[in-house]
Specification:
This protein is α/β, with parallel strands linked by helices. The protein has one domain: TIM Barrel. The chain is built from 16 helices and 8 strands. An 8-stranded parallel beta sheet has the order 1-2-3-4-5-6-7-8. α11 links the parallel β6 and β7.
Length: about 350
């Protein structure tokens, strides 16, 4: 019996907190938009799009990620993405999700007004969440790939939108993009301003550069969570600090293997050492379509490839919920009504605390 069958991983109620909406675009959605705009007229629909998603480093992945954002030239094009999001949440039994959106390319292309985009996205997401009995929150990626001025513009655009929508689903900002030659410390003013505005803050750090990126994100940007954090494996002292502070680390195993900066085999992934050191880790997909994965597969990987025990995986399930930006009472409610009843019915009761 497989792990998936033994523990019914597919039906396990889950949260996800590190995922890029644009990287949920299915091959079918991209093919529809390609047919509409004739961006790649030589492509033979689905087959050729599948062949595009093959990378061996982070730079190639980001370049392809940005290219496929050029397919969205009308706010209604984003409905395809939202349809893909709904299917993804249902297929992976995700009841709560915090996902990145990337407005920089929208703004630079000039096809879509940014405030119109935010309005469309928020309205459709609210309706979707009600329909599937889930919750969806958004983090705007201010993006280090395009520099400080662009990052501040993204924050200011978000603030302007927030003044028009008292029930916005956008709860914070995140720092994504290329870390090389883009130190987190450069974005201190953006993150200081975001906190003044009451926004949550997170940052990709330690994905393709050293542990100093994680230190800067914590000490200078003062973020609440770290995305990836893979280079912590090189710095025992910092690992102990992150553990003692219980700063959530959003681990994305398959993503880290594909980009190959600090680990090239799942069996060598540092997540097991992170857990042994007491780090607060969750498991996430990062870019599901780009990396040919989903959250169900990532949980199976924890057992089959990373060598985690049942107890360790259960702790990751709980970490995933308690690392969200929900209130403490909301977290307790979801644990007691969504997760715990399922675990008691499916997994050995002695493992559940």
């Amino acid at each position: 019996m497989s792990i998936s069958e033994k523990f019914n991983i597919e039906a396990l109620p889950k949260t996800e907190i590190h995922l890029h909406l644009e990287a949920l675009a299915s091959y079918e959605s991209l093919a529809i938009l390609n047919d509409k705009y004739k961006i790649l007229p030589e492509f033979d629909r689905i087959k050729h799009f599948e062949e595009q998603f093959n990378f061996d480093n982070l730079g190639m992945m980001i370049d392809q990620f940005l290219f496929f954002q050029t397919f969205y030239r009308d706010v209604y094009d984003y409905q395809h993405l939202l349809n893909d999001l709904e299917k993804y949440m249902l297929d992976n039994s995700i009841y709560y999700i915090e996902l990145y959106i990337s407005p920089t390319m929208i703004k630079k292309q000039g096809y879509v007004d940014i405030l119109e985009f935010y309005t469309f996205l928020n309205d459709r997401i609210r309706n979707m969440a009600a329909r599937i009995n889930g919750e969806i929150k958004i983090i705007t990626d201010v993006s280090r790939s395009f520099g400080l001025e662009n990052a501040m513009e993204n924050l200011n655009d978000l603030y302007r939108y927030q003044q028009t929508d008292s029930n916005s689903q956008i709860i914070g900002i995140g720092l994504g993009g290329r870390e090389k030659n883009n130190p987190a410390s450069d974005y201190k003013t953006v993150f200081d301003r975001a906190r003044e505005l009451g926004l949550r803050t997170v940052a990709h750090a330690g994905e393709e550069v050293g542990s100093e990126s994680v230190s800067e994100a914590i000490d200078i940007l003062k973020v609440s969570r770290i995305g990836h954090g893979t280079s912590l494996i090189l710095d025992d002292e910092l690992m102990r600090k992150v553990s003692s502070m219980q700063i959530p680390v959003e681990v994305c195993p398959t993503s880290n293997i594909v980009t190959k900066y600090y680990v090239s085999e799942l069996s060598e992934h540092p997540i097991k050492k992170f857990i042994k050191q007491g780090l607060n880790v969750s498991v996430n997909t990062d870019d599901p379509v780009l990396f040919h994965t989903d959250l169900n597969k990532e949980y199976i990987i924890l057992f089959d490839e990373c060598g985690l025990s049942e107890t360790e995986v259960l702790q990751i399930v709980k970490n995933g919920l308690y690392s969200t930006f929900l209130s403490d009472s909301e977290k307790d409610f979801y644990w007691s009504t969504k997760v715990e009843p399922f675990l008691k019915s499916q997994w050995h009761k002695s493992l559940i605390k």
